[in-house]
Amino acid sequence: MHSFGYRLNALLTLGVTTLALMCAMASFSDNFNHPSPSANVQVMNVNWFQKQSSGNDEVSLTLKISADLQSTFTWNTKQVFAFLAAEYETPGNSLNQISLWDSIIPSKERAKFTIHTKNKYRLIDQGSNLRGKEFNLTLHWHVMPKTGKMFADKIVMTGYRLPVDYR
Amino acid sequence: MDWQGQKLSEQLMQIMLVAVAVAAYVTGFMIESFRIMMLIYAGGVVLIALITVQNWPLFNRHPLKWLEPSVADEYSKEPPQQQAAAASSGKKKSTKK
Prior knowledge:
The structure holds 2 protein chains of 2 kinds. Chain A is built from 1 helix and 8 strands.
């Protein structure tokens, strides 16, 4: 501690190191949060269902998505990124996952919601396998922290089926 | 600062910083506000800087005792490394006396 600059440097270095430790502890405290989320999705309407000129099936859906992700928020949460994926199996692919809708939830208050929406992203198959196809709708979410580890989880909802014929 | 002051300043800085960090973390955790934790910590660091980095009088309570100038002169001829330098300065001193 021989000079003003020496002391200032020592304080700032120890200060930043301690700050890093505090952030690590804040991230660690997220492990003690046990969320109890819920979700429900209804397919309100199959708007249209066509085979495109590329030969691939495409379907447009109107969805009613309701979810409660409030319990995933902690003091160390910056935002929760949620997306809804359609999942199904085809002869060519053991798993097809297609994101239909997503949203950034910036606060706990906005984490409980119900929305009616057309699918935000297009549901296009690799091929022509969608007629009569049984599929799952899975709500995935990523809890993005202010510092540290990101937690991801999902709720799988089964029992959806596409029409047998194009419309 | 004198040596004792430097030691006191360093110890004060380290203890206060840990205390501020613990206080900030516990407060932030309890009221579930990351922002409050950062604000308390930042404020604490500024306070510690004001107290320990600046050369306050309390850090100069044990000043070093330097020798008097006349006493220092008598000893300056003795060390052998300084004989070459003393040879030229010695000439000056002999003319002064």
